[in-house]
């Protein structure tokens, strides 16, 4: 029986996060034992530690949803992978392709590091269906950033947004989803406008290829000016709350706003006039399905897209990693094993 | 020189609406002279009379956007119609197909009876491009209801919503757009839920084919119960304001909400959680283009859809027609010439 | 241990089809034991018996892919069904939603009654994933016709074809897929043209709602005449071989041709000019996925669509049923248990 | 009255092509006088000179459809352009957006340099609707290559094909459409396979960014090998005739084949099996509409795409330009004024 060290809490509250040891079972039929090489953090992981987000956590609870690792052993009937394969996890296990899971009364939120156990552990044993082959061109830390933040941006811009070269795309902020949005949009030939309240972060975004660096104040007017009033074809609306009103003013006629965020507590408010007159599509985004993650992985390899990692921490330093997340990161925070 | 009687105002305010006479020009190249047989009213017509809705009206101003009539004469180069043809107007002249008009700063609102002159006149002279052949199976009064209310429902449910048989569709209220929504959805094999605060109106909606008649209070719970928690695949959200919150609770995972209305003054408010977790599409609807109106006309003929007219008034009775509109109509109000 | 009677062959050739007995295993984890109530036949079943169609059959081989039955017992971990539930099989096990299975060199053809065992057996034990809930409004014989013929027509016209009311649809012939095409198109408000070389079959198709009954000779000209040269928006091309040339002449500008059939031996030939000038979409159809079958089932219930069964045979009469299939059926042939 | 020199024929046959002078009218209402700066040739131009392609040519007939120039004067009511603006022509005048023109019996082929007069003239007078703003980043010669060859590739890959990064795209040959296809696909992050019978042309294609250079013989096997049997997600099928059979063998499950060419005389032949089993979409392409050309123009500016010109000729050298076209060009042939 293998023993894995893992970060866990035994009750709600991030202050209880400790390294504990747990027994790792043999993989049953259809399952795989995977040795983690890297885990990336999302803001949601912090919220789950703090308040559980209404999820039915079992303690000791291991946080985090996004990992890259190596298949160590496979159970009977596993066909998609073999020992030695490099894999990444999927954020919503069981969502393979097409239609989403759950129903109107019970919206799906069955993710790793929430409804399911998390991945901040030296080993995990999960069904093979929960994994995707890692990109060949990324190291484990980079690969670990794809399942949630990367796929969210891809699903918004490409799977549902069907971006094309020349489209004018606004990306709000410089967090993980935003920088993936910038890079994915540039990989498809779009013209990218990025907003931030930090001049230094804007400068870094410019080095990643952003065409227009906009202060958060007054970005709507700037977008209208820079596009000769055409407006934005696609806006990654990450701010939530009253931000949608700004996006509706900036969006092009018939344009698209992707609503992204974990701000479940906040209400959205928006004026009706631009919603009716410009007839935009406002699309809620809940990460995405496994087939889209596979598409994204091969796009990463084809375009040499390199995820932006603001901080790499050792396995022992998970608390520092969470603290960095708390301060706000430029891109992603990763824990390497 | 022909003389046309027409209803017009010489200053803002519906109390000034009078029958006046106006000279009718000969149609220039590309134009047609059309004799009106029927005009249908929209709630918007009342708002334009009252406050102009910020539009650059020229006085005397003739209201109304939707008409059916007979081509009396055609100018040079007209190819799509000939004298004697039965036609209906288009709500947004010049919007032929595909992408909408205008830009992000100047959203398009160039409609008949607003930016352009209205149609509550015995004769109009407009470019041939502004007309569509009337359905063969409708009389003039019925045909006049298609350009705005009919097309709005068609554009929401079919052109953008791509409804299919078995879809669960919620229609809010029993106004003109709502009843077209009910009929169009039934013509495509959908299961229709209609809401109203009036038991009598619900009963009438049932006779038109609505499958489920729901009191306005508590309709969300009823939809969830009746669909075994699946929720609504498509909601025609006509209420505006806080209504979107209800629709977001009732919508199916991956479902669609079409936002329809003229409630420009009101804000939309909605909770973020269902928007993110169920990932619905919220689509603003600004009527639609001419090609979709042509599609709708042939669908009307193929399915024998009969628009619901709550009141037919003579040309002299336009004031009574507007008063009926003010009280709230079950379907459409039409003025016959 | 249960014993099931089943029709099987011990070597290629339909003449060897016999009732034999086989042991029925207990359902393992994720599996279900289903008692068959009805099996419908497809032309393909005959080809498999005759020549195996290049598939890796194991003998004794049980033919047929489409069944309706009752869940008798479920294995561990089954969540979607319970004993007593009425179910139908899926044609391509494992194809749940979205993207198709297999790859360019090994196109997927892993169906029941081919790559997988068939269903002409009193009992089957298959994974729960291979089943879908039966429609509430159909008896077992009717329900058994949906998995292949019904879904093929639905996938062509609705899932990929996005039919709308008023569309002009040509259905070739009066076989199982064709009559489902007719009924599905009518349920969505389309105008349907059906072709046959038999006046009697055309008359029967008329009673099912076909708008235009066309002799197989000269149908292209008739469609052009009857549509005032518009042409057909969607053609279910079932004839194969040189038939595509006719369809390309009849299709509307920007229209759609769904290519359906099991005529693997035949070549398709077509003139390039209408393909380039009218820019139609020609779409190969390989039945469809489980999610679409679920959509179709609820559409059947919502629209009261009744599959057309040309012959119902007892379990003992499978040979007569195959003989009927051989003569050509108006709709479907079903074996009831 | 202005006099324009223009190349024209007075009877069918390219040998009669001469420079003649013609009077240039003043632009009427809605028209513009445009001074040509460059004209690019298509293979079709050669066929029209040789045999008229069944089009109703008026003599003297001026060939060619694609030009870039400067607006010299505008007629009354022109709003989209003003003197001094740089413009390019549209291939199918009047096709603005959405649905194609014409009907099933009379497929649309109303192009410049065919049904309409051509552009190999120092000045043309056409409706403003027939023009689009030229890209800012291209010179006139480059800009003149967009209306037919460029838009065809864009319409196939992007407007209908909705390409995404990581897609595997096969481009057949190194003609004008093919090289645009290569460049557009690369601008969207695709992986491009190009075929040619010339090693030298393949090498040049590699310098333009093609990922895989394939000899025309055996390209199907190479694509299957290089993609680990996945196959091609999108194939620009330019060869026509029996080539479709190869493309059907190379296409991925659920992939797309765009059928492009002017080979109206040739039949298409293809095996039915891969068409049915892999369920690809085969899409006829007839250039595209004006809105897509506008989208493409802004994509060219956003991505710095530079059209490939194999030969630039002076106005006097039109005969040499046609001879080059006849020999086969790597990309486009342009005549500069």
UniProtKB/TrEMBL annotation, chains A, B, C, D:
<keyword id="KW-0560">Oxidoreductase</keyword>
<dbReference type="InterPro" id="IPR036291">
    <property type="entry name" value="NAD(P)-bd_dom_sf"/>
</dbReference>
<dbReference type="Pfam" id="PF08240">
    <property type="entry name" value="ADH_N"/>
</dbReference>
<dbReference type="GO" id="GO:0016491">
    <property type="term" value="F:oxidoreductase activity"/>
</dbReference>
<dbReference type="InterPro" id="IPR020843">
    <property type="entry name" value="ER"/>
</dbReference>
<dbReference type="InterPro" id="IPR052711">
    <property type="entry name" value="Zinc_ADH-like"/>
</dbReference>
<dbReference type="Pfam" id="PF00107">
    <property type="entry name" value="ADH_zinc_N"/>
</dbReference>
<dbReference type="InterPro" id="IPR013154">
    <property type="entry name" value="ADH-like_N"/>
</dbReference>
<dbReference type="InterPro" id="IPR011032">
    <property type="entry name" value="GroES-like_sf"/>
</dbReference>
<dbReference type="InterPro" id="IPR013149">
    <property type="entry name" value="ADH-like_C"/>
</dbReference>
<feature type="domain" description="Enoyl reductase (ER)">
    <location>
        <begin position="13"/>
        <end position="335"/>
    </location>
</feature>
<protein>
    <submittedName>
        <fullName>NAD(P)-dependent alcohol dehydrogenase</fullName>
        <ecNumber>1.1.1.-</ecNumber>
    </submittedName>
</protein>
